[in-house]
Amino acid sequence: MNQQMLMFAVIQSEDAKAAIQTLTQANLRFIPISSMSGSLHKGNVTLLSGLNRDEASRAVKVLAANCRERTLVPLDIRVGGTTAFVLPVERAVQFGAQQEITTLEAPKEKEDGMKLILAIAPEEHSNEILNALVAAQYRATLISTTGGLLRKGNATMLIGVEAEKVDGALACLEDACAAITL
Predict the structure, then answer these.
(1) Among residues 29, 31, 28, 35, which one has the least CA distance to residue 10?
(2) How far apart are CA 52 and CA 58, in angstroms?
(3) Are 41 and 89 in contact (CB under 8 A)?
(4) Dihedrals phi, psi of 144, to nearest 5 degrees
């Protein structure tokens, strides 16, 4: 099985339109998030995508071909290109109206420490899901995002949990999604 990856790619606003169009043409799904660089406070776009290893390699090549480095005049500072983080995904689960649920096998050894759960839901259901998480004592950060093909409003929730509570948090998400009338 091809390893699932999570890709965060930060690109300059000037390169965003061409990069997003090329990624879409290559059948690579993503969520664009408006962001800002830390040092120059310059607008950029962070692309978030769940990909398999082969798709991640293709995405990196597309970004390299569409994102260029620039010199900021009069500062004579070189910026740009793209910065991409590709992380292995421990588990991917899909809840909701679709029949198929994809689950990558959970690790056999119990790990200590914190885990990050990234949950993406339709924006109109985000409050219900967030309320269910909070009621179950899970903390989450909500980010408004836009989905790829249809450019629909989404809510991306970042949920930090202790490693031993991941299954409980996923069950809470599944229950919240199942309770939503679509």
Answers:
(1) 35
(2) 10
(3) no
(4) -75, 130
